[in-house]
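testing teh design pipeline on a random one, pls ignore if ur not involved
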């Protein structure tokens, strides 16, 4: 009977993981922005800076309310966050469809609706990741890798769907984003549940997770510290650090700064790869038409998305391998992300042939995927699983500053090199010089990020060595 019950729970957890992955597929549509933003800007006569501000508003929605969103998921359960996110995604995207058809809309209003799309994605995605982490507590890296990877694949999914069914039709594509994101999250809502695990025990529902099982950790006596190899931990009593206590942790601030730097670098390319495409192609071949540029923009969005998907999946599964087999730190995945970002910035500063721009978008996607594929697992491992949603929400405040700085700087540089076209649209014919200065800044930031990740690994080794020594003294 027990084995049958375990098999049923195992199947139920698999179904919940599939639901979390489907939901996440609808939550990463911020990254498809470059596929439609240039055409939207031309139709509404927006500058590059205004276009970047609208895109940044979606990023703000995704990151700025991470803490209250995390608290909602932690205390009310994941399902309420999913249904609210579903509504906000539909309400956020549909006004862009209307604005494009009417060729007019005030920028502040567009920023507001863009913010709603990011917030909707944040709500549903936080629920998906938390559910996956709770359902598979002994395989968090792998379990969270799938919704994280689907989040990265979202842009490819919608971009490809739009290319096949609505080629060159930006209005229809915006309608697709509205109905598609709402539909996927609403469908996943019915199957997203947290199920009890053998190392967890359910508690009365009156304590309150609506729509899911409450879980509690085993006591510290049930999980004994164990160390092996050169000061690296294989297992420790799980911490539970959250709220104000998190702000007193050196580990938090180290990870917070790394997250801000590397995410800001990635977001600049993700939000502006469409502008990179236009700048290089118009300088390379002045005869290219708008339809051709749209195709190339969607291609690079797809490259970014697929590579981000691959990076998220590899870093999630790979980080488990590093910890369980090599007894190392998951932060090595952040080192890999920093190195790949560094190479991408170097290429972005030198690529003048638009046929080679795929190297920039591809490497940027891989690096961004490596970053986000492992970061939630690092947060859970460092500060505890039960505060994951709110801790992750606090961590994602860091890109709010860096994303604004890098993207607005890019917009200012691009506008500086642009001229007004005959129909009032802004056009840059300077090729690489349209945005080169922006990548010089991100190259410097990437160098700082790489040094910080190496410092964190050293800090962890020292900390774990002290804990091992303390444990040995207690046994003596």
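output:
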């Amino acid at each position: 009977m027990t084995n049958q019950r375990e098999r049923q729970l195992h199947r139920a957890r698999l179904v919940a993981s599939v639901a979390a992955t489907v939901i996440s597929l609808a939550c990463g549509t911020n990254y498809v922005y470059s596929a439609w933003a240039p055409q939207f800007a031309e139709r509404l006569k927006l500058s590059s800076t205004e276009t970047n501000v609208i895109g940044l508003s979606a990023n703000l929605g995704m990151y700025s309310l991470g803490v209250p969103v995390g608290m909602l998921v932690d205390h009310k359960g994941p399902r309420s966050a999913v249904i609210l996110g579903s509504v906000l995604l539909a309400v956020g995207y549909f006004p862009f469809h209307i604005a494009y058809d009417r060729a007019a809309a005030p920028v502040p209003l567009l920023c507001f609706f863009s913010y709603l799309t990011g917030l909707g994605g944040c709500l549903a995605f936080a629920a998906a990741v938390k559910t996956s982490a709770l359902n598979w507590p002994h395989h968090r890296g792998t379990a969270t890798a799938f919704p994280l990877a689907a989040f990265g694949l979202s842009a490819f999914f919608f971009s490809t769907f739009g290319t096949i069914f609505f080629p060159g039709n930006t209005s229809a594509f915006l309608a697709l984003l509205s109905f598609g994101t709402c539909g996927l999250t609403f469908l996943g809502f019915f199957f997203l549940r947290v199920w009890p695990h053998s190392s967890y025990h359910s508690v009365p529902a009156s304590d309150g997770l609506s729509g899911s099982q409450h879980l509690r950790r085993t006591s510290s006596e049930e999980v004994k510290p164990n160390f092996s190899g050169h000061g690296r931990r294989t297992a420790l009593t799980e911490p539970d650090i959250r709220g104000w206590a998190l702000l007193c942790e050196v580990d938090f601030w180290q990870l917070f700064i790394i997250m801000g730097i590397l995410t800001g670098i990635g977001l600049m390319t993700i939000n502006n790869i469409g502008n990179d495409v236009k700048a290089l192609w118009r300088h390379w071949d002045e005869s290219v038409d708008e339809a051709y540029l749209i195709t190339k923009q969607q291609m690079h969005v797809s490259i970014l998305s697929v590579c981000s998907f691959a990076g998220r999946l590899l870093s999630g599964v790979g980080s488990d391998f590093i910890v369980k087999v090599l007894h190392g730190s998951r932060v090595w995945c952040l080192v890999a992300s920093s190195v790949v970002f560094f190479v991408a910035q170097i290429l972005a500063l030198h690529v003048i042939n638009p046929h080679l721009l795929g190297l920039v978008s591809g490497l940027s996607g891989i690096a961004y995927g490596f970053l986000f594929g492992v970061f939630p697992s690092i947060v859970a491992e460092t500060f505890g699983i039960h505060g994951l949603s709110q801790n992750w929400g606090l961590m994602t405040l860091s890109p709010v500053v860096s994303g604004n700085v890098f993207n607005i700087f890019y917009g200012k540089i691009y506008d500086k090199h642009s001229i007004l076209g005959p129909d009032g649209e802004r056009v840059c014919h300077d090729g690489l010089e349209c945005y080169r200065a922006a990548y010089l800044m991100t190259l410097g930031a990437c160098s700082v990020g790489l040094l910080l990740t190496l410092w964190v690994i050293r800090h962890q080794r020292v900390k774990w060595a002290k804990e091992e020594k303390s444990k040995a003294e207690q046994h003596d």
